[in-house]
């Protein structure tokens, strides 16, 4: 078919042929890459990749540096023990789950600082915070399972210890990297080293260089020499394996590490070649001071803690956080002497298998320096982990007749007179008749029994003190004013909150339940001529190396010197010829008073020399129920009294505690008339009982009498202080009928008939409550026998 187009058609020229299409020609001077050459990156590609990588790296660093903050310290790193020390600086105990005591760098010896640097990071002060090469290797090995690796610099290790947990992960190492860099910019090298030394683990449950120094050598970190310091530094690398006591088989490896540390110290110029050459491996102690709370340690920690809190020196929350170093006033030699005396005179004599009462026996005591108020020794119990309650500070046992000296002191201090107007002096005559009704008391009839129902007739105050005559002292309390007596006791040192410390005639018989430490403080005031210094248990307190301010010690003239010294002269007679002759065993001039609580639940001796006031109490308590019990039959004796085991303990302790010190006599300034005999005295010597002792019959010495009645082993005992009609004082409940004559177990015989005084009342070495009965169906009360 022909083309019908009107356009003229170009005719091919002779020899013409169509061409193949051609690619665009390459620029001049460049050749096209072909084959395997195309696999090699060009310079542009390399530069581009490097630039992008660098930007990503810098961006990642900036992002990481920005996002990763320095976190709060981890819980473990901030936990510390509180360290309790004797006055000489030796350790009593450490409390808290973590055995750590932070110290400033200045309290770590230079040798210890250099040893740790030689072991862990010799260029610490000149290098950067991180070692990127070691960091990458550690992260890679950890990620690929080739073993756990740690950071290499001290800064990184400190970050791990203080800010992070101990897990080995890449994430933790990244955080460690950035925190270390930030920390290095914000803290000095010294501060970082200090933190590292306080957070590193050294084995033996010791965190930090200070705890380690004590755990292995029993010294402070400030005392570490090059040899010991090098060993502790070696431990950081392998704390458990390098303890040559626990793992003697690893001694060669431990010594090799020790030598490595010393060589590093020499290389850095921190140790001379000659000193290094003569150094011997310092074998650590197999055992150091126990950080546990067994024995007396737990009691001391408990009592001192309460003392710090009650005196607002440290709060409970602050103590719980730890970090306190508390130097107590306790003397280790005196503390040990107290324990030995209790063991020798009491604990070792117990036979709990064959004597039921022996299982109830407890002891408590405290010793106070009169001139300073410092508590130098305490006895709280056989073992804190077996008997929790600290017996030196408990306030639930009546003090008995150890309270009587406060009545006489108050009489002299207030210049008090008898009902017929005679000034009260040591030679003032009183009627010592058993169950003599007290005169001048508006609260109703009160007629306490003397011990074993003895009547003494006319008797001087001094003799009544020797024999602990209740009739005399109940009357004296009324003559002085029981409210004044109570105030004098408080001024001498008893807390105003002392249970059952109330104004009534029975205050004289010791119904109050003060602690042995309270009583020691009050007796120390008598020994110090009437000047009272509140007792203290702490000498110094620091927190993380910084001193904590202690309350200012204040001295007050609680009573006149004549009042205190005249009381001392009367109490010297008690030791020389009264109920406390066992105290002569101290071998020093001594003054004191015995006491026994109701139903023989506790026996006391409170005494002092010019240098030391000490109170000892033997108590009875059910080890299962905690109820107060009776001491009848304990130690194989019919009963326990203050002139027995308590005075014997006091004598041995005082002799040993003051051993080697010069013997001092009392320097006394007596009240006027203290040496004059009352001219109104008549009749035979009032020391003779008027209840019919046969002529020529030797009277049983005070403190060694047989009880009027000893309870049967099968007799059901009271299970608490306020059960039954035989209760201890101050309960406010009626304890008897409206007439006398009731006999209680243990020979406590009754018979009061009146009034608002009610309650049970005391005999001659203790007392019971005086507030019952009134308005409760009439007067009443059982009047138990009292003993010295």
UniProtKB/TrEMBL annotation:
Biased composition (Polar residues): 417-431
TM annotation in the entry: 46-68
Region (Disordered): 1-32, 417-453, 672-788
Keywords linked to the UniProt accession: Carboxypeptidase, Glycosyltransferase, Hydrolase, Membrane, Multifunctional enzyme, Protease, Transferase, Transmembrane, Transmembrane helix
Gene3D superfamilies: Biosynthetic peptidoglycan transglycosylase-like, DD-peptidase/beta-lactamase superfamily
InterPro entries: Beta-lactam/transpept-like, Glyco_trans_51, Glycosyltr_51/Transpeptidase, Lysozyme-like_dom_sf, PBP_transglycosylase, PCN-bd_Tpept
Pfam families, per database record: Transgly (PF00912), Transpeptidase (PF00905)
Residues of the Glycosyl transferase family domain: 91-265
Compositional bias annotation for Acidic residues: 691-705
Source taxon at top rank: Bacteria
Compositionally biased tracts (Gly residues): 726-781
Residue stretches making up the Penicillin-binding protein transpeptidase domain: 367-624
Claim: Protease is one of the keywords in the record: yes
Catalytic function, reaction form: Preferential cleavage: (Ac)2-L-Lys-D-Ala-|-D-Ala. Also transpeptidation of peptidyl-alanyl moieties that are N-acyl substituents of D-alanine; [GlcNAc-(1->4)-Mur2Ac(oyl-L-Ala-gamma-D-Glu-L-Lys-D-Ala-D-Ala)](n)-di-trans,octa-cis-undecaprenyl diphosphate + beta-D-GlcNAc-(1->4)-Mur2Ac(oyl-L-Ala-gamma-D-Glu-L-Lys-D-Ala-D-Ala)-di-trans,octa-cis-undecaprenyl diphosphate = [GlcNAc-(1->4)-Mur2Ac(oyl-L-Ala-gamma-D-Glu-L-Lys-D-Ala-D-Ala)](n+1)-di-trans,octa-cis-undecaprenyl diphosphate + di-trans,octa-cis-undecaprenyl diphosphate + H(+)
Biased composition (Low complexity): 680-690
Protein name: Transglycosylase domain-containing protein
Organism: Streptomyces thermospinosisporus
